[in-house]
Amino acid sequence: MDQMISIIGTGQTPFGEHWDKSLHDLIADAVQSAIEAARCTPLDIDMVIVANMIGERLSGQAHLGALTASLLPHHPPALRVEAACASGAVAMHTACALLESGKAQTVLVVGAEKMTDATNEEVAAALMGAADSEKDAPAGITFPGLFGLVAQRYMHEYNLSREDLSCVSALHHRNAVGNPYAQFRKEISAEEISASALIADPLRLLDCSPVSDGAAACILSTKFEGPVRIAASQLATDAVSLLDRPSITSFRATKTATERALAEANIKLQDLQAIELHDCFSIAAVISVEDMGLAEPGTGVQLYKKPDGNLVLNPSGGLKACGHPVAATGVKQVIEISKWLQNNNLRWGATHNFGGTGATCGMHILERHNG
Ligand code: COA
Questions:
Q1: CA quadruple 127, 253, 340, 1: dihedral positive or negative?
Q2: Active-site residue identified among 18, 40, 85, 278
Q3: Contact between 365 and 262 (Cβ < 8 Å)
Q4: Which residues, at least 6 apart from 204, have a Cβ–Cβ distance to it below 8 Å?
Q5: Which positions ≥6 away from 227 have C-beta within 8 Å?
Q6: DSSP string, 97-154
Q7: CA 234 to centroid of ligand 1, rounded, Å
Q8: DSSP 8-state assignment for residue 14
Q9: In sequence order, which residues have a C-beta less than 8 Å from that of residue 270 and are 6 or more positions away?
Q10: Average pLDDT rounded to a whole number, residues 22-42
Q11: Alpha carbons 334 and 315: distance in angstroms, whole number
């Protein structure tokens, strides 16, 4: 980063079922908390970027840039970005690019999704917009189905057992117990996970991130300083359809984004002390730690069976236990790592947010300093 980009204010709604709140309400709540916490006034915000994936389909609402900017007295310029479940990371990346270019000095980034008012069928169909509509969707498959195929293949290649896979959600649920914003704040045992309802073989209910409502807002600035800065912001992409990948047990975009982010921050992987990673399904967490280089192929689950004392994975509870209002996730991850570094006096953390079956990946590296 050529510019010092600081996180100067954050806010979020709890993730979960908000049957009494609309998409508009969730955005307004998150923005208000971020502004109240911020080291600037609303009038200092000179750009608004909103991440949202399925507002048109599930709430009949597009045009979220201007809608969100209308919460500020001076109606600053605004835009909305969409990259499936990676929309939040893409919004953060867009904000960083605008800040680095000097086009803006203080940017409000908001990620929001309202999902629980729709039926399961409507949600599953809307989420399939993240897959290839010509190659994947005609088979009638859903996202649990796509990741079920990935899990089948991974188990075949590496002999991963059902019992070991269950360690992933168990750890994420344990981490969520103390998180007041998490959708599920209860511990679950590996046995309960293995015995939960079958969703898409071999994935069970407790391997899956839930359907969630929620919003997260983060104010970034080159003008005002905060205790945590964005040290790297990188995106990478891959083929959207699994049919076009040489392997479905490794996601190339994660590898590329991680390498680029570490180079940009000028640190080693081992310097990272906390990572919020994209565990939309338990198998995705296993593959992600391998693709980031934290474990050899086929051994990722070991980080869940015997956690490394020097690295915390998904302190928020991750997508599985904290919840996954899809476009809000990438922004929430940045908020979580920013707070985790401050509360635990740590220096380096990262966020890993992908869309679809890993076709877009955003990596951000955060550094706590004495701002
Ligand atoms: N984790 C933990 N508990 C869950 C859960 C989850 N993922 N999903 C639902 N529950 C709980 C509910 O709270 C409910 O508990 P209750 O009976 O005490 O109220 C119970 O399990 C049944 O919930 P229900 O809503 O009937 O489940 P469902 O069968 O309709 O939906 C899934 C379960 C897994 C199909 C749904 O959560 C899903 O589609 N998840 C994946 C979403 C997705 O694809 N996101 C994009 C990723 S790329």
A1: negative
A2: 85
A3: yes
A4: 193, 194, 195, 196, 197, 198
A5: 6, 7, 342, 368, 369, 370, 371
A6: HHHHHTS-SEEEEEEEE--TTS-HHHHHHHHGGGS-TTTTGGGT--HHHHHHHHHHHH
A7: 31
A8: P
A9: none
A10: 97
A11: 12
54: exposed, middle or buried (C-beta count within 10 Å: 0-12, 13-18, 19+)?
buried
Alpha helices in 199-278 (DSSP H): 252-265
Closest residue by Cα to atom 7, ligand 1, is: 210
Could you read off the pLDDT of 50-99 as tens digits, one per residue? 999 999 999 999 999 999 999 999 999 999 999 999 999 999 999 999 99
Per-domain boundaries in the chain: 5-119+212-221
Cβ-Cβ contacts under 8 Å for 70 (sequence gap 6 or more)? none
324 catalytic, yes or no? yes
Residue with tokens 């709604």: 13
| CATH number 3.40.50.300 given to 5-119+212-221 | no
CB of 354 shorter than 6 A to ligand 1: no
pLDDT in tens, 233-271: 999 999 999 999 999 999 999 999 999 999 999 999 999
- Which of 18, 324, 352, 364 is flagged as catalytic? 324
Residue pair 140/123 in contact (Cβ under 8 Å)? The answer is no
Over residues 107-132, the pLDDT tens digits come to 999 999 999 999 999 999 999 999 99
113 C-alpha to ligand 1 centroid (Å)? 16
pLDDT of residue 2 exceeding 80: no
Does 85 participate in catalysis according to the annotation?
yes
pLDDT for the residue numbered 370: 67
Q: Judge whether 202 and 152 are in contact, CB under 8 Å.
A: yes
Ligand 1 neighbour 53 (Cβ under 6 A): no
CA distance readout (Å), 142 to 146, 273, 326? 6, 34, 15
